[in-house]
C-alpha cells in the first residue's frame, strides 16, 4: 500500500521539480539577458567535460525556413535504461546568447542522473 502511494505521488513530485528547474532557469536567463550589453562576465562558468557525462552536440530539433535550431544533449554515463530529462532554456528571447552558455548546468544535471538538453 505504501509503495502504491509513493508511485502515485512520484509523477507529481517530478513535475514540481521540473517546474522549479524551469522557473530557476528563466530567472537566471533573464538576468543573463539583462547583462548582454555589458562587458564579458568575469564570473562566467566555463564548461569542463566530465567523464560521468556523455555530451552529444549539434542535434537538429527544428527547422524554420533557412534556420535550423540545434540542441546539445547531456546524458549520464554509464547510461541507464530509463532516466528523467529536462530542457535547459537560456535567456535572450532566442535572439542573443547560445545553448553553450548553460552547458555547465546541463552537465551537472547529467552527473546527477538527469538527461539535459540545452536548446537554441
Give a description of the structure:
The chain has helices at 2-34, 103-111, and strands spanning 53-64, 67-76, 85-88, 115-119. It has 120 residues and is α+β, with helices and mostly antiparallel strands. The chain contains 2 helices and 4 strands; from the N terminus they run αβββαβ. The chain has one domain (2-119). It is globular, with a radius of gyration of 16 Å. The protein has a 4-stranded mixed beta sheet with strand order 1-2-4-3. The termini are far apart. Helix content is 35%, strand content 26%.
Quickly count the helices: 2
Question: Unreliable segments (pLDDT under 50, ≥5 consecutive)?
Answer: none
Give a quick account of the main beta sheet: strands, pairing sense, barrel closure.
Answer: 4 strands, mixed
Work out the helicity level: 25-40%
* Morphology call: globular
Portion in beta strands: 25-35%
What sequence of helices (H) and strands (E) makes up the elements? HEEEHE
Task: Tell how many strands the DSSP assignment holds.
Answer: 4
Cα-to-Cα separation, first versus last residue: 44 Å
State the gist of this model.
The protein is of the alpha+beta class and 120 residues long.
List keywords for this structure.
120 residues; alpha+beta; four-stranded mixed sheet; 2 helices; globular
List the helices and strands and how they pair.
Elements: H1 2-34, E1 53-64, E2 67-76, E3 85-88, H2 103-111, E4 115-119
Parallel strand pairs: 3-4
Antiparallel strand pairs: 1-2, 2-4
